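Figure 6 in text form: structure in, sequence out.
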């Protein structure tokens, strides 16, 4: 079906099709002369369907609009004791529904079903459960969902069933706890969250009183290697750009950090400058705040990718975006100048800092699992640390490729143990299943242990440099 209409010049207009359809056509503003507009509806019976509109003015100005019907809400899950459903058919609109203190707000075109369970729906009660369970199912193509649960039953945060286990929700951002009354936990679900929108095909959630393990980040077989000039070498991973590639000339980049979905990466300079590529979002920098330093040595992102933390050699901590501040060494009255790395916990509730002597400092909910001085080991060549995915352990790496494992971090070998003698290891990245790790040297040489798979190296590509500063999974 096609309808045409002539519209007066210079008017803001929208086309309304005079039949019982629900397709929404966006408003178009056309300047100059008379305009012919055309509207097309996808279904012949003039009921709900997809529609589009376009128009030309007499001076050649062109406008276009598109609309779509709300989708049908999916059915509630088996075992639900109550549920609500809602639909939205406008791309810039939203719709909300509430049941038993839990509210879901959907943005974009789509529908959802929010259901409540009377108890554990899976026969696998999560740790720290408070007895509050709900389920979200979506259809259509929404852009995001905001979930606010104000029926926490004594809990403080929310977990979800990832198909294998109960794990933390990682919102984009959130979850955040507001004290109330009543106290509420709020988080946003989108393409970068865990669960993502693609996971919401019937996803149980549980209110818990303490953090659960976090879902592992995405992991491809590849990795990115970065130089102090911000140059990036991609091995088995997509290339999203580099600092020289955008015409910037620096020589102070200290590391590279991939996003959770591997769709981008950040690089940081020793002045606290931040370069973001791909879907890595820029949340601020020290120069942008008017803070002038040259001692930044580590950077770690929050689970949502909605923020990051930087640490200086003195243990000073700088937070951006949704990164939570949990303390610093200067704030504790501790005076050092040898901090070389930082790692955040998976629930955004804490972080570790490590010194070149292997001394480890834990803040917030980051647990202390040991340090080299505590073991009577005296070194001055530690270059970094990485935690296990459940935050119950960590690895420390030396410039000689020595590996020290604490907590539940497993030892998979080291360069000295292989009889390889180097002094140029600068960074380490663990595999997503904690079954291995890989190191990189300042020349871009890559060494894999455990289940880490070799995808190439800078020397192997025939490139000769000595300025590599970091490696991250890609």
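Output sequence:
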């Amino acid at each position: 079906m096609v309808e045409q209409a002539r519209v007066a010049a210079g008017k803001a207009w929208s086309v309304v099709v005079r039949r019982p359809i629900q397709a929404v056509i966006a408003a178009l503003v056309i300047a100059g002369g008379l305009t012919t507009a055309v509207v097309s509806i996808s279904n012949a019976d003039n009921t709900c369907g997809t529609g589009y509109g376009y128009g030309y003015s007499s001076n050649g100005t062109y406008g276009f609009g598109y609309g779509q019907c709300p989708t049908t809400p999916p059915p509630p899950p088996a075992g639900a004791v109550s549920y609500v459903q809602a639909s939205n058919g406008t791309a810039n609109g939203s719709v909300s529904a509430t049941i038993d203190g839990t509210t879901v707000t959907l943005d974009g075109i789509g529908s959802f079903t929010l259901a409540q369970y009377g108890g554990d729906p899976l026969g696998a009660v999560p740790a720290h459960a408070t007895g509050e369970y709900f389920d979200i199912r979506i259809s259509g193509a929404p852009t995001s969902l905001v979930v606010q649960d104000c029926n926490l039953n004594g809990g403080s945060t929310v977990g979800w069933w990832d198909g294998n286990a109960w794990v933390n929700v990682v919102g984009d951002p959130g979850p955040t706890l507001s004290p109330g009354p009543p106290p509420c936990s709020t988080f946003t679900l989108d393409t970068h969250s865990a669960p993502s929108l693609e996971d919401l095909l019937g996803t149980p959630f549980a209110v818990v009183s303490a953090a659960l393990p976090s879902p592992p980040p995405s992991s491809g077989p590849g990795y990115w290697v970065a130089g102090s000039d911000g140059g990036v070498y991609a091995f088995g991973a997509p290339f999203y750009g580099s600092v020289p590639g955008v015409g910037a000339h620096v020589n102070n980049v200290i590391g590279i950090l991939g996003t959770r979905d591997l769709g981008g990466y950040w690089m940081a300079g020793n002045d606290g400058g931040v370069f973001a590529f791909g879907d890595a979002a820029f949340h601020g920098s020290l120069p942008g705040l008017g803070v002038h330093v040259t001692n930044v040595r580590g950077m770690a992102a929050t689970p949502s990718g909605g923020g990051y933390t930087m640490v200086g050699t003195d243990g000073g901590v700088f937070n951006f975006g949704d990164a939570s501040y949990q303390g610093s060494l200067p704030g504790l009255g501790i005076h050092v100048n040898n901090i070389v790395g930082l790692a955040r916990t998976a629930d955004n509730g804490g972080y570790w800092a490590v010194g070149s002597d292997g001394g480890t400092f834990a803040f917030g909910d980051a647990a202390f699992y040991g340090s080299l001085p505590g073991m009577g080991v005296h070194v001055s060549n530690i270059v970094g640390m990485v935690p296990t995915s459940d935050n119950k352990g960590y690895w420390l790496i030396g410039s000689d490729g020595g590996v020290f494992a604490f907590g539940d971090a497993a030892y998979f070998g080291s360069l000295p143990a292989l009889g390889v003698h180097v002094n140029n290891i600068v960074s380490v990245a663990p595999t997503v299943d904690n079954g291995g790790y890989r190191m990189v040297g300042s020349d871009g040489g890559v060494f894999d242990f455990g289940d880490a798979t070799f995808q190439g190296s800078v020397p192997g590509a025939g490139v000769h440099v000595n300025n590599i500063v970091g490696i991250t999974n890609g």
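Caption detail: DSSP finds no helices and 33 strands in the chain.
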